[in-house]
Amino acid sequence: MEGVYQQLSSMDYKNVLKYFVEISAVPRGSGHNEKISEYLVNFAKDHNLKYVQDETLNVIIYKEATPGYENHTPVVIQGHMDMVCLKAEDSNHDFLTEGLELIVEGNSIRANKTTLGGDNGIAIAFGLALLSDENLEHPALEVLITTDEETGMDGAKALNPDHLKGRYMINVDSEEEGTVLVGCAGGLRFYAELPLNFTEKEGKRVKLVIRGLKGGHSGAEIHNNRTNATILLARAIMELKEKYDFLLCDMKGGDKDNAIPSLAQAEAIVSAEEVDAFVASVKELEEKYQKELLASEPNVKFECQIFEEEKAKVIHPSSMMKVLFAILQAPNGVQVMSSEIAGLVESSLNLGIFAIEDDLAIFHYSVRSGKSSYKYFISDKLSFMFGFLGAEYESNADYPAWEYKKDSKLRDLFLNVHKELFNKDAEVMSIHAGLECGLISEKIPDMDIISIGPDMKDIHTPMEQLDIPSTIRVYQTVEKLLQKMK
Prior knowledge:
With about 475 residues, the chain is of the alpha+beta class. The protein has two domains: about 1-175 and about 435-485, 3-Layer(aba) Sandwich (Aminopeptidase); about 190-400, Alpha-Beta Plaits (2-Layer Sandwich). The protein contains twelve helices and 22 strands. It has helices at about 1-10, 15-25, 35-45, 120-130, 155-160, 230-240, 275-290, 315-330, 370-390, 410-420, 435-445, 470-485, and strands spanning about 50-55, 60-65, 75-80, 100-105, 110, 140-145, 170, 180-195, 200-210, 215, 245-255, 260, 265-270, 300-315, 335, 345-355, 360-370, 390-400, 425-435, 450, 455, 465. Strands 8, 9, 11, 13, 14, 15, 16, 17, 18 and 19 form a ten-stranded mixed β-sheet that branches. Strands 1-2-6-3-7-20 form a six-stranded mixed β-sheet. β1 and β2 form a beta hairpin. The protein is elongated, with a radius of gyration of 24 Å.
C-alpha cells in the first residue's frame, strides 16, 4: 500500500487518503468486522482517546471540544465499517484474508477487480482524520462506526443510545457531492426456500452464462433500467423450453441481495439430437436481447459450453416450471414512484441472490420503500406467491425509513457553508437507498441528521470508483461546518 499512497500523497489533505489506504488493507466484509473494529480500537488507544466497543463490535471514539466550543452540543460523525465484497469473475481475491489492491487512475481510486469499499470506508477515513487533527477547531466529537450495515444494519439496531451525547449527526454514507440527504427509504430482506423434486435425464450437459450486465446498488441504481441477470436468464430458459427437450441441473445468479445481479448461469441436460440447434438458438437469443437492451445494457453477452454426453440428476419438469414461474412472475424492480418528490422511487425490490442448493431453490430479495405500509405489502405479495408454490419463507432485517424533518439547524448550516465555500447551492434530496439514519433517529428522536459524501461511481460493483478531489472538498466542508458550530 505504500506505493499507492506515494501516488496519492500529493493529493492528500489532513491524512484523509492516508487513512483510506490504511483501512483498505484491513479485510472488512459484512459479517467479518473483527479486524476493522480492532483497528479502530487501536487507533483510539494510540491517540489517547476514549472509546466504546460494544458486543456487536460497533466502535465510538470520543474527542473533547477545543477551547471556545465546550458549551456546544457534541457532534456525531457516523458511518459503517463493513463493505460489500464483490469481485470480477477472473479475480482470485480472498476478502476474508486479503486487503484491497488499490489503483490510482488520474483523479480516481479503484480496486483491482473488486469493490472498493468507498461505501463506507470514506466515512471511517473522515472520522479518523478529524480525530487526529490537533489544529481543527470543533465541538466535542463522537465518531460512530457501526457494523454490518450492508446486510441488515445490525450494528445500528444494537446501538445503545446512551453512548451518544451528540444531537447533531453527520452521516458520511452518500455518493454525490453537492447533495445533502435528508430522508431515505426503509427496507427488509425476504428469503424463500422452494423444495425441488429431481429425476434423471440422458444427453449432453450445456452450460449457459449471461454476463456483461452493469449490475449496481439495488437502491441507488434500481430506477436506471439495470437488467437483472437472473431474470434475463430465466426468460431465456423459458423461451428455449418452448422449442427443446432439456432439464436444468443447476442455476444461480447474484452474490448480494442489495446488488443487482450482473451475471447468472445455468447448466442443463439437452438431448444429443437437439444440442446443436439449442446452441444456435442461444446465439439468436443473444442477438435479440442485445438489440432490445442496446441503450441500457450494451455489453450483455451469452456464452454456451457443451460437455460430453452423460446421464445426470436434473430438476423435475414440474419443479423447474415452478422455479421459472417464481423468478419471472414475482415483482422485481421499481414498484411505485413517489407522488411527493419528483423522480424519487418510493418502493422497489430486487432479486439479489438465486441458487439451487441441495434440494432447494433459494431466493433472496431486498425490499425498499419510503412508506412502511407498502414495504410490508410487497413482503406480503412475495409471501402469498411463494406460499402458494409450497415454499418456506421469512422476512427479516427490517429497518425504518428516515423521514424528512421540516426544521433542521444542521441542514440549514450545511447549506450556508456549502454556498460560502463553492458559491453555489447544494441540492436537498431524499433517496431510495437505505441509511442507518432511520434507525438512529428512531432511537434518538431529537437527533438532527444530514447525510453527505463525495462522488462515487458504480458502488457495489467491481467497477466502483472514488473521486479524489471531490473527497477532499467534502472533507473541507465538514471541517468548516464543525468550525461554524460555535
